[in-house]
Amino acid sequence: MAPLLEINNLKTYIRQRQSEVHAVDGVSLSIEAGETLGLVGESGCGKTMTGMSIMHLLPNGGYIAAGSIRLGDRELVGLGEKEMRHVRGNDVAVIFQDPMTSLNPTMQVGDQIAESVRIHRHASKRDALQRAEEVLGLVGMPRPKERLKDYPHQLSGGLRQRVMIAMALSCEPKLLIADEPTTALDVTIQLQILELLYELKQRLHMAVLLITHDMGVIAGRADRVMVMYAGKIVESASTVDLFENMRHPYTEALLASIPRLDQRSDAVLYSIPGLPPDLSHPPAWCRFQPRCRYATTRCHEEEPLLTGSSDHQYACFNPVANSVSRVGSVR
Ligand SMILES: Nc1ncnc2c1ncn2[C@@H]1O[C@H](COP(=O)(O)OP(=O)(O)OP(=O)(O)O)[C@@H](O)[C@H]1O
Ligand SMILES: [Mg+2]
Known about the structure:
- This protein is of the alpha/beta class.
- It has two domains: 245 residues, Rossmann fold; 76 residues, no CATH class.
- It is built from eleven helices and twelve strands.
- The strands form two sheets. The chain has an eight-stranded mixed β-sheet, with helices on both faces.
- Strand 9 and strand 10 form a beta hairpin.
- The chain is globular, with a radius of gyration of 21 Å.
- The chain binds adenosine-5'-triphosphate and magnesium ion.
- Adenosine-5'-triphosphate binds next to strand 2 and helix 1.
């Protein structure tokens, strides 16, 4: 069966006055129906721009310079705004880190959800409000009928995020892009929202692109993971395989920076030294090389391409060998 989403060699650039940022630089990925793919990496590595390329919601100056994005049997690259409006909401929906940027502060939450149902489903106002109440129930909103009349500022952060999820799911999209869906929430609410997303995905058989900088969010929730660094995918594997048998030094460093339960609370958490490269002038060799503890001369001369087996790929000349035992020594 063909995957639901198939991205091939996507290049998304952002034009600036003096230069052009290569935000996404040749990314390929695919997601099956009902599957969760985690996209992880540090801030600025191009995760959001990958998601926003699918939605055609790029910032000013942003454009898809090359590649293909197929959703089902449809090519999205080159699709006009009118057709994309239909794709957004009906086929693909997105939830962001901060619900306040997506919710209208002057509109009751019931009307906001109903409006999206009316646009996409051509439902009557009454039916749309009925659907709003139903999806608020689905996302675990207490007393959903009463909440319809609330304004966003009357709700807590966790409840607002539930409203965003309800809005995203109101038209039963085939693909949900969850971009740092819990980063702004405190830890217990984070867990509740992640569990809710997982349960909804199972129930609605949606595909999910789960974008996060936090490896801990991916663990146990994504079926497969792609690790992104400086606009490129540097490692891709099933979640279990990635955690047990990581091959890219960047993945190893990301995993080493997750806090562990068995760690002393006053222990200093590992942080990766140095900074990612400037994406308006990306180097022609390994982009992680200046920060890598295993780098050799070759890493500064050539760009490593993805290699390995079809279910575990990595872009590195000196892959981590016995990674499980090495994580401790990174600290
Ligand atoms: N509006 C913009 N104008 C110019 N450059 C931008 C804009 N938004 C993002 N970029 C650049 O594009 C690159 C990729 O950014 P992106 O937002 O995709 O990163 P990210 O991985 O989602 O990071 P974060 O974890 O911080 O959300 C970065 O180098 C960033 O500086
Ligand atoms: Mg982002």
